[in-house]
Amino acid sequence: MLQRPARRCEGTAMGAIVLDLRPGLGVGPFTLGMPICEAFAQIEQQPKIYDVVHVKYYDEEPLKLDIVISFPDHGFHLRFDPWSQRLRLIEIFDIKRLQMRYATSLIGGPSTLATFVAVYALFGPTYPGTYDKDRGVYTLFYPGLSFAFPIPSQYSDCCHDGEAELPLEFPDGTTPVTCRVSIYDSSAGKKVGVGSLMDKASAPPLPTGSLYMEEVHAKLGEELFFTVGGQHIPFGASPQDVWSELGRPCGIHQKQVDQMVIHSASDPRPRTTLCADYFYNYFTRGLDILFDGQTHKVKKFVLHTNYPGHADFNSYIKCNFVILGTELEEDDW
Question: pTM for the full model?
Answer without folding.
Answer: 0.84
